[in-house]
Amino acid sequence: MPERLARIFEEIASGVQPSLPMDKKVLWAESNNVIYREGSVQPAPSHTALFIKPEVAPIRGAVESVLSGVPNIFFGTQKKLYRGIKGTGIPVNVTRVSGDYTGIKNTTVSEAATTWSFTRFGTWILATNGKDRPQIWKLSSPNNFVKWEEVAGSGNDLGSPGTEITTAQIVRSIGPYVILLNTSNGGEVYEWCDTNNPHVFTPTAANAAGQSFLRDLHSEVIAAVPL
Known about the structure:
This protein is an all-beta fold. The chain contains one helix and 14 strands. The protein has two domains: about 10-45, no CATH class; about 60-215. It has one helix at about 10-15, and strands spanning about 35, 40-45, 60-65, 70-75, 80-85, 90-95, 115-120, 125-130, 135, 145, 170-175, 175-185, 185-190, 210-215. The strands form four sheets. A four-stranded antiparallel β-sheet has the order 3-4-5-6, with no helix packed on it. The protein has a four-stranded antiparallel β-sheet with strand order 7-8-9-10, with no helix packed on it. The termini are far apart.
C-alpha cells in the first residue's frame, strides 16, 4: 500500500473566502497568521521578538523605561527579574545578588500565583511581588535589584519599628510620591513616602510620609491605577 502524504478533510476545502463579509466567512479548522474574533477571521497583528526569552517560566509583570535615551523593559518571572535593552536581544539578569525570589508559578487553593508590580521613579525602577522585600534598581548602581532599605544612604527606612513594610502587593508612583498598597501592615493599607524621597516611609511632623486604610473595602487591594 503506498504511503499517504496528506489526509485531506472537508474543512480544508472550505477555506477563507475573500468575497464574503468578515462575519460570513467559513473558517478552517486550523490556520496560520489569522485570528478568530467576534465570529470572524481577521489577519493576525504583526509582532517582533524584542528579546530571547531567558527561561521557561512565564513573565508575570513588566514596565518600560527610557534610560539614557535608550528604551528598556524590566520584567519578572516568579523567581527572577530581568532588564532588556533595545538592540541587545538578550535580557540581563538583574535579580538580587542574594538569590532567587520566593514567588510561586501556579495558583494553589491557599495562595495565588506570584505577580510583579513595577513603577518608575525618574530613572529608578521599583518592584514588589507581595512575598519578598520591596526591590529597587538604580541606573548607576547597583546593577542588580536590592532590598529597598539596603540602598546606600537610604536611611534603611521602610516604616517605623513594628510597622516596617516587609512586603507589598502593589507599587505606584504619583508625582513626587511612591505609594505601596496591600502591605505587610494590612491588605487594605496604603502607605506613601516623603516628598521626592521613596526611602523615607516613617511619618514624622517634619515630613509628608503617611499611612492610611481603605476602610470601605471588603477584601485586600489587588489592583491600582494612578490618575
